[in-house]
TrEMBL record:
Keywords: Repeat. Pathway: Protein modification; protein ubiquitination. ARM repeats lie at residues 147-197, 197-232, 239-281, 323-365, 364-406. The keyword Isomerase does not apply. SUPFAM superfamilies: ARM repeat, POZ domain. Residues 540-607 form the BTB domain. Residues 1-13 have a biased composition (Basic residues). The lineage of its organism: Eukaryota, Viridiplantae, Streptophyta, Embryophyta, Tracheophyta. This is BTB domain-containing protein. Pfam families: ARM_PUB, BTB. InterPro entries: ABAP1/ARIA, ARM-like, ARM-type_fold, ARM_PUB, Armadillo, BTB/POZ_dom, SKP1/BTB/POZ_sf. Residues 14-31 have a biased composition (Basic and acidic residues). It comes from Salix udensis.
Length: 688
């Protein structure tokens, strides 16, 4: 992963800076408060840099004065290189070729025997300065083109021909660090390093007596192995794996951090190397690093275990058997986001194996994974979601996840990337597939005997997850509906909202299974005379007086339309023999629409007339027209008028409209729960 090279780059620069000579730091330190300008003018600093470069260019000899001058100049330039604003100025002043020249010892003077003055120290200073300049990617190729790699590789060899002295070790270490920074995210330079023969010497240095040299060599190999298959293969061919595995067991955090980083880059996208690493015995020491005091080592170990787990099912099982689960779960509680991300990554791979799923849940993995769904980090969210997807494949985990509120967490989560949303959707479908048999029985048991909050969580989940054939058992026989209705009276707005949405979901699912007809059949055969007879005096045998105007009608059509008209014209009412019947409480346009429906069986209803027409249809027992009016009114329900619409449905026993109002209120709970009438409504609904 890219973050590995980023952290390597940062750690390399830190090592280069921290290992500088203390006295030089004091003498040439550049204040960081306001770049170089706060210390002295940029022009003055440029002159100082140029002076040191000129000294290097004129002092490449074995003379004592020249060696001393070169040592001082490389030290000063190293200090300047730590200030990022001065790096470009140093390059412009010709520091690169001057420093590259001093990576090698000058030619001996005539008659010179024995060690040179400041042997290894000038080279060390040059390697340190070049390594700092190479932190800026735009200067990497310039340094290589100036011939630095050949000399740096030669410096790596010095441990063979010299005592284990501080000077030699310093030069070797700084050469390895410089190679690390030069090759960082530069595939061409990584290849050049291999061609120059550096890899075999770096592998040898892993066994050096000086732990700082070991660390520097491992850091270089780590960078060289990243996304470079040829380098990976050569590192393995040079027999680096046994030494790296031993370094994993080191108590020195810096050593095992670099070692696990090298191995991580070696196995990435390289199945054959992954197999070789496991055969070399890396698994147990990597698991041991999960408990390292170094969080970076923990992170790399977790990432590496995730990569191992992708190899095969047996490896997944072995990782769990060897004790990785508990420390990985503990890491989920860390304050380090990247550490949590890598732990979730490893657990996600392990959770795709059936035998591991129950173990992860049993060790307490579900709750911290659910908490990670609230993270603002997209990758962390996704790794947690992927792990949960694996866990719910095991029936034994389903009730445990629902019991702690996992379903609501998955349902309500705000997920950052689309992959996570897709993963959560698959998890929900997988949960739905599991709600039967012993899983359902377990949930019903919890709904009966568990604490109240757990009962509610189960009822909420089952409102979405249980199969249609099980709804009667869950919500009627086992009182699941009472639990949901009880949420409407909860003191928690969140629980009220959850209950409302669940009831809405349950009601809409029931409606889809048992659809209600728009207009039920009349108990008697319906006779429609047709549009041409609406308010037509032809063959008319009864006249209605509406708002002082006559409306011509036909008894046979009215008698067939409803019980109200049959009672009016075929019963003991005075209208039976009357030729003119007065209609005192209905407007003309409403009455005309009602009669048009009676004559044709259909009518277009304007929303402005729908409520008055509903009253008329209810008065004259025209159920079909009443349902059409309810349907029209339901289309106009809003947050502002839903309470009035509900009262209207109650007043005229308009069951379809009432159902629409209830569903609307449940669906729009967040907007309606603050309305003064909502408390009364929720109590009324609970009673119902």
């Amino acid at each position: 992963m890219d973050r590995r090279t980023i952290s390597t780059r940062k750690s390399s620069k830190r090592k280069l800076e921290q290992d500088s000579e203390p006295e030089n730091q004091d003498r040439h330190k550049i204040p960081a408060t306001d770049t170089a300008a706060s210390y002295e003018s940029h022009q003055k600093l440029t002159r100082d840099i140029q002076t040191q470069v000129d000294i290097l260019n004129s002092s490449f000899s074995s003379l004592e004065a020249d060696r001393a001058a070169a040592k001082r100049a490389t030290s000063v330039l190293s200090q300047f290189a730590k200030t990022e604003d001065l790096v470009d100025t140093m390059v412009d002043c010709g520091a690169v070729p001057a420093l590259v020249m001093h990576l090698q010892a000058p030619p001996p003077t005539r008659g010179e025997n024995g060690p040179k003055l400041y042997e290894h120290e000038v080279e060390r200073g040059s390697a340190l300065a070049l390594g700092l300049l190479a932190v800026k990617p735009e200067h990497q190729q310039l340094i290589v083109d100036a011939g630095a790699l050949t000399h740096l590789v030669e410096l790596l060899k010095r441990h063979k021909n010299a005592d284990n002295s501080r000077a030699v070790n310093g030069a070797v270490r700084k050469a390895a660090d410089a190679i690390t920074n030069l090759a960082h995210e530069n595939s061409g330079i990584k290849t050049r390093v291999r061609i120059e023969g550096a890899i075999s010497y770096l592998v040898e240095l892993l066994e050096h007596a000086d732990t700082k040299v070991q660390r520097a060599a491992a850091g270089a190999l780590r960078t060289l192995a990243f996304k470079n298959d040829e380098n990976k293969n050569q590192i393995v061919e040079c027999n680096a794996l046994p030494t790296l595995v031993m370094m994993l067991r080191s108590e020195d955090t810096a050593i095992h951090y670099e070692a696990v980083g090298v191995i991580g880059n070696l196995v990435h996208s390289s199945p054959h190397i992954k197999k070789a690493v496991l055969l070399a015995g890396a698994l147990q020491p990597v698991i041991g690093l999960l408990s390292s005091p170094c969080s970076e080592s923990q992170r790399e170990a977790a990432l590496l275990l995730g990569q191992f787990a992708a190899a095969d099912s047996d490896c997944k099982v072995h990782i769990v058997q060897r004790g990785a689960v508990k420390p990985l779960i503990d890491m989920l509680e860390s304050s380090d986001v990247q550490l949590k991300e890598m732990a979730a990554f490893a657990l996600g791979r392990l959770a795709q194996e059936t035998h591991n799923q129950a173990g992860i849940a049993h060790n307490g993995g579900i709750v911290p994974l659910l908490r990670l769904l609230d993270s603002k980090s997209g990758p962390l969210q996704h790794n947690a979601a992927f792990t949960l997807y694996g866990l719910v494949d095991n029936e034994d985990n389903v009730a445990d996840l629902i019991k702690v509120g996992g379903f609501q967490k998955l349902q309500d989560g705000e997920f950052i990337i689309q992959q996570t949303k897709d993963c959560v959707a698959k998890t929900m479908r997988r949960l739905e597939e599991k709600i039967h048999g012993r899983v359902l029985n377990h949930l019903l048991y919890l709904m009966r005997v568990a604490e109240r909050n757990i009962q509610r969580r189960v009822a909420l989940a089952l409102a979405y997850l249980c199969a249609p054939d099980d709804r009667k058992v869950v919500f009627i026989d086992k009182n699941g509906l009472d639990l949901l209705l009880g949420l409407l009276e909860s003191g928690s707005v969140k629980l009220q909202c959850d209950g409302s949405v669940a009831l809405y979901r349950l009601a809409t699912k029931a409606s889809s299974v048992f659809p209600v007809d728009a207009a039920p059949l009349s108990p008697t055969s319906q006779v429609y005379l047709g549009e041409q007879y609406v308010n037509n005096p032809t063959l008319s045998d009864v006249t209605f007086l509406v708002e002082g105007k006559r409306f011509y009608a036909h008894r046979i059509c009215l008698l067939a339309s409803s019980d109200a008209f049959r009672a009016m014209f075929d019963g003991g009412y005075r209208e039976r023999n009357a030729k003119d019947v007065e209609i005192p409480n209905i407007r003309w346009d409403v009455f005309e629409l009602m009669m048009r429906f009676i004559y044709t069986g259909s009518v277009e209803i304007n929303i402005d007339l729908a409520q008055d027409l509903l009253r008329a249809a209810d008065q004259y027992l025209l159920d079909g027209l009443k349902r059409l009016c309810e349907c029209t009114i339901a289309q106009d329900i809003s947050v502002e008028n839903v309470s009035l619409m509900y009262e209207l449905s109650e007043g005229f026993n308009a069951m379809s409209l009432r159902e629409s109002c209830i569903l609307f209120i449940l669906k729009q709970f967040d907007k309606l729960c603050t309305k003064p009438w909502y408390v009364v409504f929720s109590m009324h609904l609970s009673i119902l």
